[in-house]
């Protein structure tokens, strides 16, 4: 089946593969979020909803709502002093739940949706230890090694990751380049 110019084909299996990859990345940093916001279940609910979709569940309004809820949890954590790792952990959860809604646009922006959870998780891990050592690089290497074929296939149909985005943007570009090799 041909697609319109500027669009790519995305199968449901590919969306599930991207969501599974994203939810596994976000799950690793859930303890960071929960340590900083122990009474807030929004990040965990977003990751769990993404896992349900990845395992064969339906894309529902509830899944989208949980993605937005985790996004709001990140914004609330950002308003508090000294919670940078908590913010990125919540952003990873939000990206995980939103991965089911990846658009079939052939735009560099979509790469951020494919790899955002892994990049935010790497940044959360890095921030949690005070940016010492190679924690971010190690997290990206783990993500590269664990990326399923669906992630690589989808990235292969998209332009390379865009510039900008600070440290997380750099992580996205680094992971994108590694997965395209």
From TrEMBL:
Q: Which residues form the Imm-5-like domain?
A: 11-135
List the keywords (alphabetical).
Exonuclease, Hydrolase, Nuclease
Hydrolase listed as a keyword: yes
User: What's a single GO MF annotation on this record?
Assistant: exonuclease activity
Indicate what this protein is called per its UniProt record: Exonuclease SbcC
